[in-house]
Amino acid sequence: MTYEDVRLEIAEGVARIVVNRPARRNAMRDRTADELLAALRAAEGDDAVRVVLMTGEGAAFGAGYDLSTLDPGSVPDLARVLDEHFNPLVRAMRASRLPIVAAVNGACAGASVGLALAADIVIAGRSAFFYEPFVGIALVPDAGNTLFLSRFAGRIRASAAMMLGERIGGEEAERWGLVWRVVADGALMAEAQALCVRLAERDPDALAATKRLIARAAEPDLNPMLDLERDLQGEAGRSPAMRAAIDAFFAARAGSGS
Questions:
Q1: Which among 111, 68, 82, 91 is positioned nearest to 234, based on CA atoms?
Q2: What residues are paired with 131 via a beta bridge?
Q3: Given pLDDT bands bounded at 50, 70 and 90, which one contains residue 257?
Q4: Other Cβ atoms closer than 10 A to 16
């Protein structure tokens, strides 16, 4: 695949996969998810690769799904978007033989939160934050958000985060169990790279088997939850409230000239 939205760099056993849409704060369109999956498959197919590092270019890990890619005059088929683009990526990340490290720089919102939490180890810069905007535009959390956030942070915290849409700062995310470690912004990539080097030095078969055991213990219900998110998101995408929210989004965007 020719990459437009993603950059793949392989060196010293580490495959660095970078969402490269900084002008859109690394918001993801369907193609972005497809390229991320293709990059992951390329890393898995390279015997020299021992670990994957996923991050975003510039000042954001990712702003979630790029609403500007929707047709303002039509009803979006969000169930299809999830089924064909984002859910296969989440499933592949959790099933991959490779340990995946997410380096969260800056904003991490919506579907991008699901991708970060689908990694095996999450490290974040001190100014990073996690944000669940779905309910605010009459949608439901997807890309594994409902499972991961509820499982890691607990039902009460997850409910508040997803229903109220309040930002979760990096240090708060660490306290909640969403992040393994928070570091200074300027040290994030060096710390993430050092972590990847440590993983790359370990036995790959033992790492793959350990990841498989953890996935079985922590998220045996991942596939049915992704399917349920898909179905309910499909319903939400057809609602008048969501249509009004999208119309308001495009009106505000036109007003700002962006």
A1: 82
A2: 109
A3: low
A4: 22
